[in-house]
């Protein structure tokens, strides 16, 4: 009955397990590390998607926006904005976006982007009800300027068909919009919570810059 109710209500697999535990039953859904041999075909698919996105950026993240994979386009963009990342160091894209000292200095429309992003994290926190997601939301809200940005009206630039991320560093201006994809038939918690975010140029100049960086970098 618990399984039927959770399925009918479209309860996420993580919360599905929590309901089973609360009812005195063992969990039924596994949470497999993305690097495990059992997920080799999934990793191949992720690599394929991200390679197809070149020379434009693409990243794969978990439900708390911890970086799992990044293609060359994403690495080149980050290195241009903030410099090389330490190999193997954990990266949380939510913190990188919202904190005052990472991407914010280069994001012209930071207030508009963060307003939209925080609303999405609020929706995640409401949907999964876990302490971890609630803690992520609270951490993001404590960064300087975040709460005030939520109260501010949207700028004129935020009224277009999509909200771009407008980066500027020196003479280089980049405008990118994103799509977020998920796996269609996940049977594992890790895979259900996986998100693949692809960045696309909003204008020809941005596309030219990204293609130029790829050409300078040469074959992977």
What's the short version?
This protein has 220 residues and is an alpha+beta fold. It is built from 10 helices and 5 strands, in the order H-H-H-E-E-H-H-H-H-H-E-E-H-E-H. Helices cover 47% and strands 14% of the residues.
Question: Taking all residues together, what is the mean pLDDT?
Answer: 92
Q: What is the 3D shape?
A: globular
The residue fraction in helices comes out at 40-55%
Euclidean distance between termini CA atoms:
51 Å
Question: Please, what is the oligomeric state?
Answer: single chain
Radius of gyration: 19 Å
- Largest sheet entry: 5 strands, antiparallel
Overview of the molecule:
By secondary structure, the protein is an alpha+beta fold. It folds into two domains: about 30 residues, no CATH class; about 190 residues, 2-Layer Sandwich (Beta-Lactamase), CATH 3.30.450. The chain contains ten helices and five strands. A five-stranded antiparallel beta sheet has the order 2-1-5-4-3, with helices on both faces. β1 and β2 form a beta hairpin. α6 runs antiparallel to α7. The relative contact order is 0.16. The model has no long low-confidence stretch (mean pLDDT about 90).
């Amino acid at each position: 009955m618990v399984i039927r109710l959770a399925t009918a209500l479209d309860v996420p697999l993580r919360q599905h397990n929590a309901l089973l535990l609360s009812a005195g039953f063992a969990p039924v859904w596994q949470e497999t590390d993305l690097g495990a041999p059992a997920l080799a075909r999934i990793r191949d698919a992720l690599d394929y998607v991200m390679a197809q996105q070149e020379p434009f950026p693409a990243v794969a993240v978990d439900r708390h926006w911890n970086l799992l994979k990044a293609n060359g386009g994403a690495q080149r963009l980050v290195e241009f904005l903030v410099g090389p990342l330490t190999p193997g160091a954990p990266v949380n894209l939510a913190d990188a976006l919202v904190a005052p000292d990472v991407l914010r200095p280069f994001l012209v429309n930071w207030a508009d982007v963060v307003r939209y992003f925080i609303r999405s994290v609020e929706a995640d926190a409401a949907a999964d009800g876990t302490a971890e997601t609630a803690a992520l939301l609270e951490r993001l809200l404590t960064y300087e300027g975040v709460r005030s940005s939520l109260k501010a009206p949207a700028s004129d630039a935020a009224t277009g068909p999509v909200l771009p991320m407008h980066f500027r560093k020196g003479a280089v201006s980049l405008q990118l919009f994103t799509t977020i994809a998920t796996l269609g038939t996940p049977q594992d918690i890790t895979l259900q919570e996986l998100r693949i975010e692809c960045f696309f140029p909003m204008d020809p100049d941005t596309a030219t810059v990204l293609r130029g960086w790829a050409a300078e970098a040469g074959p992977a």
